[in-house]
Amino acid sequence: MAVAIDDTIVAISTAVGEGGIGIVRMSGDKSLGILNKVFKHVKGKETLGMKSYTMRYGHIIDTSTGETVDEVIVSFMKAPNTYTREDVVEIYCHGGMVAVRKILSILLKNGARLAEPGEFTKRAFLNGRIDLSQAEAVIDLIRAKTDESMKIAFEQSQGKLSKKIKKLMDKLLGMLAHVEAAVAFPEDDIENVVNQEIIDTGREIQREIDGLVESADTGKILREGLNTIIVGKPNVGKSSLLNEFLQEKRAIVTDIPGTTRDVIEEYINIKGIPVKLVDTAGIRHTEDIVERIGVERSKEYIDRADLIIFMIDASRPLENEDFEIIEYLKGKKTIVIVNKMDLPIKVDIDFIKDKFNRDFVITTSINTGEGIEAIKDKIVDMVFEGNVSSRDVYVTNVRHRDILLKAKESVGKGVEALIAGLPIDFASIDFRDAYLKLGEITGDTVEEDIIDRIFTDFCIGK
Ligand code: GDP
Ligand code: ZN
Fold it and tell me: Does the keyword Cytoplasm apply (predicted)?
């Protein structure tokens, strides 16, 4: 991948809005030279003489008017020991929008180019400091919704997945070398011995990929959130449950850009799991879906959910609407909550336990607090499926999972070809495919437009 990175980029790296300080960051060869034109050290020291990893105090001067714009601290980090592996300059200024914008515009006038979203991280990738999966983890880190999601994103940014993928790629290279040797010396009787060795390694790779994707569903939930819908008749206690959940941890509300007010995602942090309650236009609370749009429309939401929380009021006998929902929820990932256990009980709880997996029927009273912990524990159990812990999670990104599965398929084809006694070149093609596939995770063999697409998802200044 030949990409010329010869210009110096600049962006505001802190969040938009008012803040204590703002940071404007430059990366590229000309960073220090540009700083030199616009920065005046308080004691008149020469900027070009700045040592790597030092800071200086002074002022930013508007070069077109000679006017002093802001008092700042600047830092200089010399390539290659920087985020991008290029020279990096950071300017710490007063955190109002005017100050940071003004400084940005002065840097632009003096030879820097406005960075695209994610371009700093993209350079870190293109310059070989991190691989593509590590770069992807950077955005996951920024967007992490719970401490648990953040931990996993951090580990990926440190190369936890990359190391595994590189090992698999090395194994495939070894297999290809063997295949090549067998092709080069067909008359030697080594072919059969070699084949068995290759078959064994192929199987090993398949098992390792299985191990990696095993926890991918958990990983996806930690990265993207558990799509959840609360259903049940009016007055069973849905709002009360939601409030109970919201009390403990702050929900993160994201307006998806461009679709203002069309879709609002709310995340509740349940013991480290980001539980996402999707709310579409006009329906303020997901829990009210059944109340507002009726059973038919709510079925659509139910079908798309990762988890359905179905609530029943223990103090009222079941009605047709309950039975209809019960039928519809058959075989779906459901936690049934039999609420208001503090009141005289009018439902047959055994009947409900027979209709669902009895381990997933929880009796609660939101008034007394009974059963609330049990609901949370059940959600955690479901996400981690009993045996996986976050330590076992390597794959969180659907892109990575899909690639791994395709690579596994190619390895499988190659192994089958060897077993079937087909000419060894056939297997060679399949193993090469698998190798190239895995390289799309690390970024070694990925198309440029895919890289571009990944980085456009980033925010400006990262
Ligand atoms: P929703 O219509 O399903 O959202 O139900 P709400 O959460 O609005 O609750 C309806 C009523 O039931 C409210 O008056 C709540 O205070 C009450 N409620 C909720 N949970 C319990 C419970 O566990 N026990 C009792 N006795 N009342 C409850
Ligand atoms: Zn309600």
Answer: yes
Q: What residue owns the CA closest to ligand 1's atom 6? A: 237
Domain that holds residue 65: 9-129
Determine the Cα–Cα distance for residues 420 and 253; give it in Å rounded to an integer.
56
Residue 451 counted as domain residue: no
pTM of the model: 0.83
Tally the domains of the chain: 3
366 Cα–ligand 1 center, Å: 8
Has residue 287 got a pLDDT over 80? no
ipTM field: 0.99
* Same-domain status, 367 and 404: no
Region 83-104: mean pLDDT is: 94
pLDDT band of residue 288 (cuts 50, 70, 90) is: low
What is the pLDDT, as a whole number, of residue 190?
A: 59
- Kindly report the number of other CB atoms within 10 A of residue 426's CB atom: 16
Rounded to the nearest angstrom, the distance between the alpha carbon of 372 and the centre of ligand 2 is: 17
Whether 455 maps to a domain, the answer reads: no
Query: What mean pLDDT, rounded, does the chain reach?
Result: 87
pLDDT for the residue numbered 186: 63
Ligand 1, residue 311: give the atom nearest the CA.
Answer: 3
pLDDT band at 388 (very low <50, low <70, confident <90, very high): low
Between the CA of 342 and the centroid of ligand 2 the distance, in Å, is 19
Section 224-240 average pLDDT: 86
Shared domain check, 349 and 256: yes
| Token pair of 173 as six digits | 């290279």
Annotated binding-site positions for K(+) = 235, 254, 256, 259
Does the residue 323 lie in any domain?
yes
| d(C-alpha 380, C-alpha 400), whole Å | 24
- Ligand 1 pocket, 286 CB below 6 A? no
Question: Peptide bond before 80: cis, by omega within 30 degrees of 0?
Answer: yes
Whether 285 shows a pLDDT value over 60: the answer reads no
239 C-alpha to center of ligand 1: Å? Answer: 7
* 371 touches ligand 1 (CB under 6 Å): no
**Whole-angstrom Cα distance, residue 153 to residue 272?**
13
Residue pair 408/210 in contact by the 8 Å Cβ criterion: yes
234 contacts: CB under 8 Å, gap ≥ 6: 291
Say whether both 193 and 172 belong to one domain. yes
- Which residue's CA is the closest to the ligand 1 atom numbered 27? 340
Helical spans, DSSP H, in 225-358? 238-248, 289-304, 320-329, 349-355
